[in-house]
Amino acid sequence: MILNGSLNGNSMNAVALKMLLGDRAKYLGLVFGVTFATLLMAQQVSIFVGIMSRTANAITSVREADVWVMDPRVRYVDEVEPMRDVELSRVRSVPGVDWAVPFYKGLSTIRLADGLTQQVQLIGVDDVSLIGLCDDMLSGRRDAIRDPQSAIMDRNGFLFVWPEGDFQNSRTFELNDNRLRIRGVCNEKPTFLTFPILYVTYQTAMEITPPQRKKMPFIVVKARDGVTAEALATRIAHTTGLQALTAPQFRWRSINYYLERTGIPINFGITIALGAIIGAAITAQTFYIFVVENLKQFAAMKAVGVTNGQLLRMVLLQASVVGSMGYGLGMGATALFFFATKNQPALQGFQLYAQVMAGTAVSIAIIILGSILFSLRKVFRLDPAVVFRG
Amino acid sequence: MVASSATMRPMPSFIRNSTTAGSSKAKTWTLKPSNLILPALAVLGMGFAIFTVFFKPVEAARIPATPPPRSPAEGALAAVGVVEPRSEIIQLGVELPGIVRSLNVKVGQDVTEGEVLLALDQRDIDAEIARRQAVVDSARIQAADALALYKRISNVDDTAAVSAEETEQRQYALKLADARVKEAQATLEAARTTKSRLTLTAPIPGRILELNVRPGEFVGSPSNQVLISLGDVSRLHVRAEVDEEFLTRLSTGTSAYATFRGDARKYPLSFVRSEPYVRPKQNLTSASPRVDTRVAQVVYALPEDTRTDFVGQQMDVFIGSPSEGTPK
Amino acid sequence: MSDVSLRHVSKSFAAGDGQVQVLHDVSTDIRLGELTMLVGPSGCGKTTLISILSGILSASAGEIELLGHSLTQMNDRKKVMFRRKNIGFIFQQYNLLPALTAAENAGMPLMASGLSMQKASQRACELLDAVGMSDHVNKLPRQLSGGQQQRVAIARALVHSPRLIVCDEPTAALDAASGKGVMDILRQIASTPERGVIVVTHDNRIYSHADRILEMSDGRLIGDHAPDAFIHKE
Questions:
Q1: CB pairs under 8 A between A and C
Q2: Secretion signal: which residues (chain C) (predicted)?
């Protein structure tokens, strides 16, 4: 272990540790300052990432697809600019396409038995392959969606519309004067729009939505083995004149749209920045005070022959001990938070990301190092003569 | 010179011994167990965080339970086709309005040419025929009578006994009676024709694909609905709609495949003909007409052993790219 | 020959927009084997003088020679190394590290030179025995009285066997009895020919322990007395 190793090695490290552990209140204050800062940063950033990725969950939930084809005007996944039906054949004719199926996505209003209405996200999946239909079924079978007048709803939406639950009890409702029945409930990551997700087959979607000349919003495409999604997307876009994006590209395009066009990211960014600043301030201040309050001791040590280098190593050791412990505790607390709330609809799908862990580690390290170096300047320039002056 | 710390000078002898004899021992510092609580918690927390980050359930790429139609050749033309009989679909109707009295076929039944499919109510025409038969009969009797009258005097040469005028009169009466017979027979024949028009027969051998009529129903003429669909299903064709944009890539000699929805099996197609007229897309695949492009229709023949259960089924047709086709 | 010699040493600090001269042309010699006291009113430059002659402060002008080495020619790092080997410090406020035991505090100069904490403490124990602190080696500073703390500080000043021990008001915070105990120890240290002790003080109770008294006023050395003569002059 680091601590015991330093006891046997450089004795100044042991002195540093004793100094640190000697003042229990200050020691705990330091550790929990870092813990709090870590928790604040990691948790806020993770929630932000979670919310932003919700805007693209409609894309990531179609896991079979490599490439999405849509009208060139589409800027994000919730924007629908329908295409001509003929485009499906054109996309299928592009070399490198393994398969291509239509995918309906749009907003509709359902009328419940008691006369209340509810907006839903209507998803129409290809009748044959059911591509894009969620597969984590809580009740019912996926195949049931092929039956006439049948639909599948996501769990969160179901609980929103029928808070009493009871998935087995099949409910009927109307959509544009078409009777539909919930034949299954599945678990799907919630999307940004929060409306219940209603799955029907593509043909059903065509039949129950108002007639229009063009109705096909998306075509999802699988690339042949050996063809990269990027190359295929470029080729489809070039051949058909449509907008073809790989799933990650489309995802980022959607996320960027929300980042650029809505106030949510700015609002959240401010909160995160505030959290980070508060965390940084707490950490920096505690470390600064810790060093400054020990200035007299450092001066005495300098007087008896401890060099600046030794002092620097001592403070760095103290900082790394405090920093790593606070970071570990903070990360543990963050992970625990997301673990405990993973089934709450409001927080479902939010999680700790490795990138957030790394980023938080770097920022915490920078904050600690910065505040140490700032306070250490005082130590380096410290005149040992101060110890004479009482 | 400055003495190095390694060669420390001996302990000064000036200091008297302290009150307690013997030298004291300095305690070696070790970490107290209480000091390890926080690091242990930190390690636990870190471990948990890493666990949740790196050991989350993997979201495997889903493989569709039923494979979507795949294009068999690289860069093949994709089209949507509908299965039809070799004869195309013959939609039969009746010539005269009336009430359906009898229906002789069922859906899916194979019929031979000329077989009666349905008959309308024929009591009226039967009565008419009987009446006209009677008219023919009476005309024949009158004709026979006129003939007898004529024959009786035609052999008498005595002009005094039979006047030439009388002979002429009887001769004309006979001709008139014969003409009456012919007229009555023609009227009878017309009624018989009308009767035949009240039954519907199969124009070609084939299979009843659709039956939209039941005995007792009134059917009009021209009927506003298809009563019976008939088709020759001994060999099936698939009519594919190729979008006009692809026409330059289409050549008759290329190989083509078709697949049924939800069935991975590929059916090789042989070219039959292409319709010379590029028409507005009829949207074979959807009930609601949404005209959005013009298409050329190409007809291919399915292999002979194709199951022939479902005419009208949708197929995904892939026509090989010209580069790999064998031009004729 | 002299063991410590100061020649025309001046020191001025920047203060506001001008300069304050703290030492004016100080020249003197200090010998090992003696307990030299530096006395004078507060602010007369006593502390500045010992800071300069122990290499903590640099002189603005003048030559300092310490045990055969010219301090003015050393860089900061060499001064630290020199101090680590040859000079022991005793401060008015003891300046012990509150988190370390008496033995560890006393062993600090050895640890700074790279000795392990255990070895340093063990050696410090011998000196703590010598200053009468055998029962308190494992106590923390807050568990010790002022006099006991100053004894620990003395042990720390001696643990690396320095040639010169520099003391800044060692008795100022102590009662008479403790102060006398501390001075007795310092007196004994200075009785060996290879060790010198310099004590800055204005505590007239301890003048009798000196071998020689240098009197300062306003940054100048104004007198060099034998203790008896000085006590009577007071």
A1: 96
A2: none
DSSP secondary structure letters along A188-209: -PPPTT-SPEEEEEHHHHHHHS
C-alpha distance from B30 to closest chain C C-alpha (Å): 11
Domain that holds residue A136: 72-241
Chain A to chain B Cβ contacts (< 8 Å):
161
Q: Tell me whether residue B114 is in a domain.
A: yes
Q: Collapsing DSSP states into helix, strand and coil, what is residue B179?
A: helix
Phi then psi for residue B116, to 5 deg, are -75, 130
Q: Are residues A144 and A214 in the same domain?
A: yes
Cα torsion angle, A162, A164, A168, A172, sign: negative
Pair B212, B131 in one domain? no
Name the residue type at position B101. R
Mutant choice from B53, B58, B265 vs A, greatest count of A C-beta within 10 A: B53
A10 in reach of chain C (CB within 8 A): yes
Residue ranges of alpha helices (H) inside chain A are: 2-8, 11-22, 24-54, 57-60, 86-92, 155-161, 202-208, 229-240, 247-261, 264-293, 295-303, 308-340, 354-380
Cα distances from B323 to residues A230, B77, B253, C220, C226, in angstroms, run 25, 12, 11, 109, 120
Give dist(CA C188, CA C180) in Å, integer: 12
Q: Which fold has domain C31-58+76-233?
A: Rossmann fold (3.40.50)
Sort residue B34 into left (φ over 0), alpha (ψ -120 to 50) or beta: alpha
Residues B99, B218 contacting (CB under 8 angstroms): yes
Determine, for residues A305 and C113 on separate chains, whether the beta-carbon distance falls below 8 Å. yes
Pull the structure tokens for residue A67: 């490439």
CB-based contact A339 B52, cutoff 8 Å: yes
| Chain C environment of B1 (Cβ under 8 Å) | 68
Q: Are both A216 and A293 inside the same structural domain?
A: no
Cβ pair A109, A235 in contact under 8 A: no
pLDDT digits (tens, 9 = 90+) for A331-342: 999 999 988 887
B288 pLDDT above the threshold of 60: no
Nearest alpha-carbon partner for C151 in C167, C164, C133: C133
Write the residue in C48, C89, C92 that is nearest to A303 by C-beta.
C89
CB contact under 8 A, C91 and A15: no
pLDDT by residue, tens only, chain C of 234 residues: 468 888 889 988 877 778 888 888 888 888 888 899 999 888 888 888 888 888 888 888 888 888 888 888 888 788 888 888 888 888 888 888 888 889 989 988 888 888 888 888 888 898 888 888 888 888 899 999 888 998 899 899 888 888 899 998 888 888 888 888 888 888 888 888 888 899 998 888 888 888 899 999 888 888 888 888 787 776
Residue corresponding to tokens 């003409």: B179
Q: Retrieve residue B145's tokens.
A: 């009578």
Note the pLDDT tens digit of each residue in B88-144: 888 888 888 888 888 888 888 889 998 888 888 889 899 999 999 999 999 999 999
Give the nearest partner residue to B18 out of C101, C110, C130, using CB atoms: C130
Answer yes or no: is pLDDT of B9 > 70. Answer: no
Nearest to residue A37, comparing CAs of A229, A236, A323?
A323
**Which DSSP helix (H) or strand (E) runs through B229?**
strand B228-231
Angle A207-A209-A215 (CA atoms, 0-180°, nearest 5)? 90
Rounded to 5 degrees, φ, ψ at C222 are -115, 0
Q: Are residues B224 and B100 in the same domain?
A: yes
Q: What is the CATH number of the domain that holds B105?
A: 2.40.50.100
**DSSP symbols for A158-178:** HHHHSTT--TTS--EEEETTE
Closest-CA residue of chain B to A333:
B45
CB atoms A22 and C98 under 8 Å: yes
Q: What is the radius of gyration, based on Cα positions, of chain A?
A: 29
